[in-house]
Design brief:
Layout (H helix, E strand, L loop, with lengths): L9 H6 L1 H6 L4 H9 L1 H9 L3 H7 L4 H9 L3 H11 L3 H17 L3 H4 L1 H6 L1 H6 L4 H11 L9 H7 L2 H12 L2 H16 L4 H12 L3 H9 L4 H11 L18 H4 L5 H8 L12 H15 L4 H9 L2 H10 L6 H15 L5 H9 L1 H19 L5 H13 L7 H16 L30
Helix pairs in contact: 3-6, 4-5, 6-8, 8-12, 12-15, 14-17, 15-18, 17-18, 18-21, 20-23, 21-24, 24-27, 26-27
């Protein structure tokens, strides 16, 4: 027990600036804070800056106090429901995150309370600390020691996330889905991670989510769909299940392939440059996600709507220097060329990929002769050429001859800037660089 217990109220303590400053290095005051953390939280909500400073200090005694008093979590949730004060919401989000970091056995301590208030948390998702807290909750199963993701999915977290995006276009939803995708692929989370995937595929709001995104060409929404698609790829080299058997994430997207194709179409203008825009960049990433799906019906729709051709039209278009898009297209090409049985591989050759790669290489050489440097597309085009040349069934003599003569010869010629002979300069006693000589008396 602290000597201050029964002597000071929280309000009186916070008014005493000396006690507040001494808190950081006085054990007795820290013990008082441990026993009166809830009262400090009440003062925090009333706008007391000293209470905020102490509670957000991240000191162990504060974290112990926050988790010790079972009144604190419901109190924070209640205030999230009733306040629209941005700074207070941010602070509560930080404190919730700190509480989670301190207690690793959250499924025992607070999960029952968290389950009851999933909707409240999601409603405040535009607050970065709240969003980070939700991400921490959903990815808490890294080593499968608890089942927070499973429990929160049971309480409808996917439904609330989709609902929040449909109604408010909250970027926090995109952040959360992205982090779950990364978490699922980075760690061997097993069946725990599949719970979220199953909930996404069975969520009744999924068609409405797609409609709200593609009818408005919502950039963040396109990014969200790209992440969702990476959750349910087929493990087979080429899965030929019928359309009705596709995961809903893919099946419900099929009616919007026309929109995707339309967004990928570059304007036909006489202007020397063209702006791709973030929407088109995110759409190319979405196509990359479709290419790794390994579903035959998905590939068939890509071919039907000429989506792959338009993606490569963007790659070969000389009116832009968007390396981000071109790198994604290189990834698309390499993935397709590794799938021997994929209809997209045939589509790529029918598109004339061999001739276009050679044309771009010739253009890059001419560009260098004029500007003394290669254009942005040169190195990325070389990556595609290498992948094409390594194909065992390649029978295009013109392409093979160009690679083995022109490109191979060019790559074997040493540059004058990196030659084996190194020029040296001899410095003699009478050498003068034109600068005044200073005698330092040494």
């Amino acid at each position: 027990m602290s000597r201050l217990d029964g002597v000071l109220t929280a309000k009186e303590f916070l008014k005493n600036q000396t006690l507040v400053q001494d808190f950081f290095y006085t054990k007795d005051i820290q013990l008082w804070v441990l026993n009166h953390t809830f009262e400090l939280c009440e003062e925090l909500v009333l706008g007391n800056n000293n209470a905020k400073m102490i509670l957000t200090s991240n000191m162990t005694v504060v974290l112990q106090g926050l988790n010790k008093d079972k009144r604190i979590f419901p109190f924070f949730i209640e205030n999230l429901q009733t306040t629209d004060h941005g700074e207070l919401i941010e602070t509560i989000g930080k404190l919730l995150g700190n509480m989670l970091k301190y207690y690793t056995n959250i499924n025992i301590e607070n999960i029952d309370e968290i389950q009851k208030h999933v909707k409240v948390l999601v409603h405040n998702i535009n607050s970065y600390p709240i969003c980070d807290y939700i991400i921490s909750l959903l990815t808490h199963d890294t080593y499968q020691k608890c089942e927070t993701l499973k429990l929160l999915c049971k309480e409808g977290v996917v439904h609330f996330l989709f609902e929040e995006y449909i109604n408010h276009k909250s970027y926090g939803v995109t952040r959360i889905i992205k982090e779950i995708v990364l978490w699922k692929h980075m760690y061997n989370v097993g069946i725990v991670g599949e719970v979220f995937v199953d909930n996404c595929n069975t969520e009744p709001l999924l068609p409405q989510l797609y409609s709200s995104i593609f009818e408005t060409q919502d950039v963040d929404g396109i990014e969200t769909v790209g992440y969702l698609l990476t959750l349910s790829p087929s493990n087979d080299e080429l899965c030929k299940i019928p359309i009705d058997g596709l995961p809903s994430i893919y099946r419900l997207l099929l009616p919007f392939y026309g929109k995707i194709s339309e967004w990928l179409t570059l304007p036909q203008t006489t202007e020397p440059t063209v702006v791709l825009g973030n929407a088109r960049i995110q759409t190319v990433y979405l196509v990359l996600s479709l290419v790794v799906s390994n579903y035959y019906e998905v590939f068939a729709s890509i071919i039907k709507h000429k989506i792959l051709r338009k993606v490569f039209d963007i790659f070969f278009d000389k009116r832009h220097n968007c390396t981000i898009v071109r790198q994604m297209v290189v990834d698309i090409a390499i993935i397709i060329l590794q799938q021997q049985s994929s209809p997209l591989r045939n589509e790529l050759f029918e598109y004339g990929i061999l001739e276009k790669c050679i044309d771009i290489d010739k253009y890059a050489v001419q560009y260098r002769a004029k500007h003394n440097m290669y254009p942005d597309i040169f190195g990325l085009n070389q990556n595609i050429i290498k992948s094409l040349y390594s194909q065992d069934d390649l029978e295009d003599d013109e392409f093979i001859n160009y690679v083995e003569t022109v490109i191979a010869d060019r790559n074997s010629t040493p540059t004058v800037y990196l030659s084996d002979s190194v020029q040296t300069y001899e410095v003699t006693s009478d050498w003068n660089d034109g600068l005044p000589i200073i005698d330092y008396g040494m």
